[in-house]
């Protein structure tokens, strides 16, 4: 009973704070109402007894939104960040797409005949889910993980304005490196 | 829950848990008062400082600033206390726990990243340059300490093959984890000090920027923020006990007493450290976090994983 | 009633004091610090944190105006005292305590103030809807005026112009001289942005400019000083910031033309005390409270003509302790490095050569020399740091390192007042 009520309350919180992202007129508020929405979803997942996934959702999303708020403020330029600014662009089409997707998904949820449960849930649902998702494809998952990390590093290296020649000189012999902001380990 | 070693108590005991946390906060604050009075070298002993500070801030008026984002500001300043309370729910006191979550270790992690949000929001909300610079300084520290902290928590979890805090504590009946994973323990303590914006991690509250994040806080807002810092320090010390310091294991005394003794001891060390160490500048610590701490703790994890595999 | 009385007494026994030092009165400030610590009181880092505003020394017109602005920002219950001479500090704090306990006085005081700053009213009128202006300020470059001006008439965040006597262009002279906590002086370069409220709560927008990586970033004008913890008295640094990086800085002194007390500390003990005072400030800024407290105690002993032998020994111990701390060395090493050429070019005294860590050690060393009576020439009054050069020294540094560097310059009390006035 309590579980059902809290589930519904959280659902309302999640949807409303998700919508608030577009109502509020500040980047900090938009980021953090999205974070709140994700936290509500995370707690809902906890209620579904997917503890690991629920807690990790909260963890990742709070961190992401903290970083996102900072980046938004940084990249949007300072003036728009200062101003109370609208959080939507291209309102009419965006609204149409959003409503369309929402209706389609809801219709799907309501109209699809959900199967009845066969058998009992596994002892450890998280482990079972992980096994199901990744078990036979572990090698692929590991490879994808490494490729993603390499992509991020390569992206940063390519985007960086300065190269090692700027840091270490043309013969790469200059020590310590010439940096506008020296680091803490004296490289 | 599989192989749980602790009993879950009813939710009403949450008040008792909060009271214990409150006592630890008072202990830490009195200790800090004593230490700082000794530094000042004159005047009263500092015993009553926490009480006096509370009375002062309760009596003081709240203030707002021009064009402040008051909602986010207040959420931020009260958030640290909330985090600390959420953390202690998964810490077993001997054999009792409030919330026997099978992924308690990850729960701690999820709660500690909330500091990113709350400290930054406190800095942002006031609409003041100094406090905003403080908020950004905290995030700069966060980028450096958070990943090492996460990987430090991996070590005990791998060794105990469980993310349940009670199980991790029970796995240390023979040998405390701190003995064979000291690097993870030190990095964990660094992380706790950092989320409490304490000691070497105070540049976010630095006097060079007039108090940083706290520049514009007054009255009860400041009380809750500062109290939250102590509470986080206490909660972090309490969480280190089941993770690294053998939980309730120990001779003579019952489990709950050992947990409290170990928590207080670690807390006292953390409070004492504040006076001994200068601040770590975020721009310097960033590189240390990524180039020194992260590889060190990853090697630690690898060693622990090898031992864990070899044992089975 | 009994409870609230007890509460009030406890509160007053642990008051926090914001010290405002009038130029040329550092001895009064030192005495005040000693007295307030002896009472178990603490330093306030900002007006929001303070219960007592203590004005040390006889203020000139500018410092008086600044103190008045700061006074508006104290949350209350609050007390303001003026300490005219070192020996009056104890009595002044006693009267502050009495004022803080006086319920009627405090009630009258608070009734004269509204709970929201004036800007709120502006904002409500100007921009519709909820939180019209709420998040400016954010991003480090624009703004912030975190001031609670208790709703008094001249909330002049918006009064452009120099109502306060030193109206440089581009500066809102009226607003508290930016001295304190992040009142940024905003530029007026608002470019048009269709349909938006261009000055929420009366805060104008900032200009942009290229940062050191060639990206366009806003320039924020922030005034550092004259009232900041551990900041040289009377010094005001008008900084243009990008993020927290100082791209340009200009130096002024408050009440420069009123300076009667002229540079220089003649007595060797006082000179040593001044070195200790500066070292305490630098140590506090580097976050090492223990060592800072020790340096402050040494200063107090020197000022009270304590035992020479003990002081010299303690000074030596402090010197060794600082030398041994690898964390301090790590954090100060290389900060604000001045080569021999830099020192010559900027016309600085020779003892400032090296980085901030070297300068910290040399400060303690020179204090020891002063006590020993040797090497009088080393800290001779003729070797003043030309204040105007500070702007060149801090350019390109972020605020944290700039604060460390300025503290490491080991300024004498109000030394170059006349020099700047002539310049």
Question: Which helices and strands occur, and which strands form pairs?
Answer:
The complex is a heterotrimer of chains A (187), B (312) and C (423).
Chain A: H1 2-23, H2 27-47, H3 51-75, H4 78-82, H5 91-111, H6 125-134, H7 138-159, H8 164-168
Chain B: E1 7-8, H1 14-40, H2 49-59, H3 70-88, E2 96-97, H4 104-125, H5 129-160, H6 165-170, H7 177-180, H8 182-195, H9 219-244, H10 255-276, H11 282-311
Parallel strand pairs in B: 1-2
Helix pairs in contact in B: 1-9, 1-10, 2-9, 3-4, 3-9, 4-5, 5-8, 5-11, 8-9, 9-10
Chain C: H1 2-13, E1 16-21, H2 26-38, E2 42-43, E3 52-56, H3 61-73, E4 79-83, H4 89-101, H5 103-111, H6 118-126, E5 184-185, E6 207-210, E7 216-224, E8 235-242, E9 245-253, H7 268-285, H8 289-303, H9 308-324, H10 326-332, H11 340-345, H12 356-372, H13 390-394, H14 399-408, H15 417-422
Parallel strand pairs in C: 1-2, 1-3, 3-4
Antiparallel strand pairs in C: 5-7, 6-7, 7-8, 8-9
Fraction of residues in helix of chain B: 55-70%
Query: What is the mean pLDDT of chain B?
Result: 86
Q: What's the number of domains of chain B?
A: 1
Biggest interface and its residues per chain?
B-C, 68 and 89 residues
Shape of chain B: globular
Low-confidence stretches of chain A: none
Assign an overall shape of chain A: extended
Distance between the termini of chain B: 22 Å
What profile does the largest beta sheet of chain B have? Answer: 2 strands, parallel
Give a count of the beta strands of chain B, DSSP E runs of length 2 or more: 2
Largest sheet of chain A: none
Q: Look at the helices and sheets of chain B and give the structural class.
A: mainly alpha
The termini of chain A sit apart by 60 Å
Order of strands across the main sheet of chain B:
1-2
Number of helices of chain B: 11
Average of pLDDT of chain A: 83
What is the rounded Rg of chain B? 19 Å
Structural domains of chain A: how many: 2
Uncertain segments of chain B are none
Q: What class would the helix/strand composition of chain A place it in?
A: mainly alpha
H/E element string of chain B?
A: EHHHEHHHHHHHH
């Amino acid at each position: 009973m309590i579980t059902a009520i809290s589930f519904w309350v959280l659902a309302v919180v999640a949807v409303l704070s998700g919508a608030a992202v577009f109502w509020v007129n500040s980047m900090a508020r938009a980021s953090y109402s999205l974070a709140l929405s994700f936290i509500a979803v995370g707690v809902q997942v906890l209620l579904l007894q997917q503890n690991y996934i629920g807690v990790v959702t909260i963890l990742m999303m709070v961190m992401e939104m903290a970083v996102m708020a900072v980046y938004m403020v940084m990249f949007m330029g300072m003036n728009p960040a200062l101003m109370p600014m609208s959080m939507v662009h291209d309102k009419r089409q965006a609204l149409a797409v959003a409503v369309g997707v929402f209706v389609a998904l809801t219709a799907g949820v309501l109209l699809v005949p959900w199967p009845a449960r066969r058998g009992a849930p596994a002892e450890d649902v998280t482990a079972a889910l992980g096994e199901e998702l990744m078990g036979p494809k572990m090698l692929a998952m590991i490879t994808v993980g490494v490729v993603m990390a390499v992509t991020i590093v390569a992206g940063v290296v390519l985007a960086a304005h300065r190269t090692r020649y700027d840091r270490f000189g043309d013969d790469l012999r200059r020590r310590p490196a010439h940096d506008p902001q020296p680091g803490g380990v004296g490289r | 829950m599989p192989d749980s070693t602790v009993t879950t108590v009813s939710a009403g005991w949450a008040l008792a848990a909060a009271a214990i946390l409150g006592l630890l906060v008072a202990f830490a604050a009195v200790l800090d008062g004593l230490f700082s009075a000794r530094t000042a070298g004159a005047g009263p002993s500092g015993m009553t400082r926490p009480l006096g500070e509370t009375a002062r801030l309760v009596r003081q008026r709240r203030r707002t600033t021009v064009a402040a984002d008051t909602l986010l500001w207040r959420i931020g300043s009260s958030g640290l206390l909330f985090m600390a309370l959420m953390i202690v729910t998964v810490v077993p006191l001997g054999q009792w726990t409030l919330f026997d979550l099978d992924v308690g270790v990850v729960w701690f992690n999820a709660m500690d990243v909330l500091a990113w949000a709350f400290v930054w929001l406190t800095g942002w909300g006031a609409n003041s340059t100094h406090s905003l610079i403080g908020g950004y300084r905290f995030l700069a520290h966060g980028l450096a300490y958070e990943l090492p902290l996460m990987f430090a928590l991996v070590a005990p979890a791998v060794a105990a093959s469980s993310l349940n805090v009670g199980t991790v504590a029970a796995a240390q009946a023979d040998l405390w984890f701190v003995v064979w994973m000291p690097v993870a323990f030190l990095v964990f303590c660094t992380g706790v000090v950092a989320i409490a914006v304490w000691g070497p991690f105070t540049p976010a509250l630095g006097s060079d920027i007039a108090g940083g994040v706290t520049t514009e806080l007054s009255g009860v807002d400041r009380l809750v923020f500062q109290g939250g810092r102590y509470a986080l320090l206490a909660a972090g010390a309490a969480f280190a006990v089941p993770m690294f310091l053998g939980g309730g294991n120990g001779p003579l005394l019952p489990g709950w007493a050992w947990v409290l003794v170990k928590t207080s001891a670690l807390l006292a060390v953390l409070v004492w450290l504040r006076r001994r160490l200068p601040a770590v500048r975020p721009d310097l610590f960033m590189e240390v976090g990524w180039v020194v701490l992260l590889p060190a703790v990853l090697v630690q994890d690898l060693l622990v994983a090898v031992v864990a595999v070899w044992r089975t | 009633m009994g409870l609230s009385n007890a509460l009030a007494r406890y509160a007053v026994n642990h008051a926090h004091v914001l010290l405002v030092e009038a130029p040329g009165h550092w001895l009064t400030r030192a005495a005040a610090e000693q007295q307030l610590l002896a009472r178990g009181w603490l330093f306030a880092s900002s007006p929001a944190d303070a219960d007592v505003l203590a004005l040390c020394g006889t203020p000139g017109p500018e410092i008086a105006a600044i103190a008045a602005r700061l006074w508006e920002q104290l949350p209350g219950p609050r007390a303001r005292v003026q300490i005219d001479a070192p020996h009056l500090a104890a009595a002044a704090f006693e009267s502050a305590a009495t004022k803080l306990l006086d319920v009627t006085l405090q009630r009258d005081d608070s009734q004269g103030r509204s709970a929201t700053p004036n800007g709120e009213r502006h904002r409500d009128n100007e921009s519709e809807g909820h939180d019209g202006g709420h998040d400016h300020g954010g991003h480090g470059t624009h703004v912030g005026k975190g001031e609670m001006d208790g709703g008094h008439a001249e909330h002049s965040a918006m009064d452009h112009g120099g109502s306060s006597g030193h109206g440089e262009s581009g500066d809102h002279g009226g607003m508290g001289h930016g001295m304190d906590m992040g009142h940024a002086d905003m530029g007026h370069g608002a470019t048009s942005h269709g349909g938006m409220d261009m000055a929420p709560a009366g805060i104008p927008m900032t200009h942009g400019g290229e940062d050191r990586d060639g990206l366009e970033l806003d320039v924020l004008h922030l005034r550092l000083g004259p009232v900041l913890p551990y900041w040289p008295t009377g010094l005001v640094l008008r900084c243009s910031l990008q993020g927290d990086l100082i791209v340009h800085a200009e130096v002024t002194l408050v009440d420069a033309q009123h300076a009667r007390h002229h540079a220089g500390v003649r007595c060797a003990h006082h000179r040593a005390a001044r070195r200790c005072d500066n070292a305490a400030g630098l140590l506090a800024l580097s976050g090492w409270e223990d060592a800072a407290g020790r340096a402050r105690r040494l200063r107090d002993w020197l000022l009270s003509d304590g035992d020479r032998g003990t002081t010299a020994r303690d000074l030596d111990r402090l010197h060794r302790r600082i030398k041994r701390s690898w964390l301090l060395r790590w954090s100060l090493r290389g900060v604000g490095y001045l080569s021999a050429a830099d020192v010559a070019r900027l016309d600085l005294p020779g003892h400032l050569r090296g980085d901030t860590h070297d300068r910290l050690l040399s400060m303690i060393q020179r204090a020891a020399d002063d006590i020993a009576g040797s090497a009088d020439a080393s800290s001779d009054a003729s070797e003043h740091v030309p204040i105007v050069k500070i702007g060149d020294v801090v350019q390109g540094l972020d605020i944290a390192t700039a604060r460390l560097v300025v503290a490491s310059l080991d300024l004498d009390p109000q030394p170059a007042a006349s020099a700047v006035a002539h310049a």
